[in-house]
């Protein structure tokens, strides 16, 4: 199995929303805000070459919406999905599987592109993976989460016939080297791929732990639908990761790709930080 980081660029989100109940006097030291209180976040995806499959985990915000939409998110940085794939010798047509942790626009927006007046899959040879509960949750959204589930990112996947669902069973195998973990606090039935990479276990944290600054247990995003569930899930996963020295892959941290955890007097905190390519 070979692993590659796929950077798709940076965007900005409100710092207060990202840190929930944590006051700005504390979080601004972790990720300094601009004049509008916005902080920079990565949209960092993972490419897994596993046997004859080339699996892309999440795919960033994409480019199909109008300027009016993107104006809110201040996209910046040089990397794009295509340039990052090309850096490792791949093209989007090589992707066999697109694994969507969940259907928020900053995770699945790259799934669909505009071709003339049609919306079509950006990965024409790939199967797209979601699960029944999350699909239903995203296509019949509640009013609080509705702005994150954009129809144009989601419905054309199903219309293309390239959508498949993963069975919702904890630790279900996706390949011999990849198991799926399910969490329900950020949104319903988000999926975290857990990889066995030689002797190392790597957990793709998606929005259970967007950045290294979110490691202290109460640092839960205001975007989360069920913050107390997130709290319990974070406790369980971070303890398991610290006990077993997992590598955590961070999708949104602007600087840090991967970290390990250590147990301190204050609780679980970040240990070593490094790039995926250094594992
Ligand atoms: Zn999300």
Portion of residues within helices? 10-25%
CATH class: Alpha Beta
SSE sequence, one letter per element:
EHHEEHHEHEEEHHEEEEEHEEE
Question: Mind telling me the C-alpha Rg?
Answer: 18 Å
Provide the number of structural domains.
1
Task: Please give the number of β-strands.
Answer: 15
| Stretches with pLDDT under 50, minimum 5 residues | none
| Span between termini | 13 Å
Helix tally equals 8
**Main β-sheet description:** 7 strands, mixed
Strand order, main sheet: write it out. Answer: 9-10-11-12-13-14-15
Q: Would you tell me which CATH topology applies?
A: Metallo-beta-lactamase, Chain A
Short précis:
21% of the residues lie in helices and 32% in strands. It is an alpha/beta fold.
Secondary structure topology:
Layout: E1 2-14, H1 15-19, H2 24-27, E2 38-50, E3 53-57, H3 67-70, H4 81-87, E4 97-99, H5 105-108, E5 112-115, E6 118-121, E7 127-130, H6 132-139, H7 151-159, E8 163-165, E9 172-175, E10 178-183, E11 190-197, E12 200-204, H8 227-244, E13 247-249, E14 258-264, E15 267-274
The structure holds zinc ion (ZN).
Describe the protein.
This protein is α/β, with parallel strands linked by helices. The chain has a single domain, classed as Ribonuclease Z/Hydroxyacylglutathione hydrolase-like (Metallo-beta-lactamase, Chain A, 4-Layer Sandwich). The chain is 21% helix and 32% strand. The protein contains eight helices and 15 strands. It has helices at 15-19, 24-27, 67-70, 81-87, 105-108, 132-139, 151-159, 227-244; strands at residues 2-14, 38-50, 53-57, 97-99, 112-115, 118-121, 127-130, 163-165, 172-175, 178-183, 190-197, 200-204, 247-249, 258-264, 267-274. The strands form three sheets. Strands 9-10-11-12-13-14-15 form a seven-stranded mixed β-sheet. A six-stranded mixed β-sheet has the order 1-2-3-4-7-8. Strand 2 and strand 3 form a beta hairpin. The protein is globular. The two termini are 13 Å apart. The protein binds zinc ion. The site of zinc ion (ZN) has 4 residues, from loops.
């Amino acid at each position: 199995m070979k692993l590659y980081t796929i950077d798709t660029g940076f965007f900005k989100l409100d710092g207060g929303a990202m840190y929930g109940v944590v006051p700005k006097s504390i979080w601004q030291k972790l990720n300094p805000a601009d004049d509008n209180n916005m902080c920079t976040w990565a949209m960092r995806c993972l490419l897994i070459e596993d046997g004859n499959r080339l699996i892309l985990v999440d795919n960033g915000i994409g480019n199909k919406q109008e300027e009016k939409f993107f104006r809110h998110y201040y996209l910046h940085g040089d990397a794009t999905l295509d340039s990052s794939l090309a850096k490792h010798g791949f093209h989007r047509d090589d992707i066999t599987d697109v694994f969507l942790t969940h259907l928020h626009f900053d995770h699945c927006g790259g799934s669909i592109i505009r071709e003339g007046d049609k919306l079509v899959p950006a990965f024409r040879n790939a199967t797209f993976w979601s699960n029944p509960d999350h699909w239903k949750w995203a296509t019949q959204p509640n009013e609080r989460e509705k702005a994150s589930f954009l129809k144009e990112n989601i419905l054309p996947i199903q219309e293309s016939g390239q959508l498949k669902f993963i069975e919702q069973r904890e630790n279900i195998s996706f390949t011999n080297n990849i198991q799926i973990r399910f969490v329900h606090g950020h949104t319903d039935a988000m999926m975290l791929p857990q990889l066995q990479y030689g002797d190392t276990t790597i957990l793709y944290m998606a929005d259970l732990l967007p950045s290294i600054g979110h490691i202290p247990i109460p640092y839960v995003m205001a975007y989360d639908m069920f913050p107390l569930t997130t709290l319990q899930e974070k406790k369980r996963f971070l303890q398991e990761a610290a006990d077993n020295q997992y590598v955590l892959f961070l999708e949104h941290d602007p600087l840090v790709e991967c970290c390990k955890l250590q147990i301190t007097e204050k609780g679980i905190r970040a240990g070593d930080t490094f790039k995926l390519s250094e594992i």
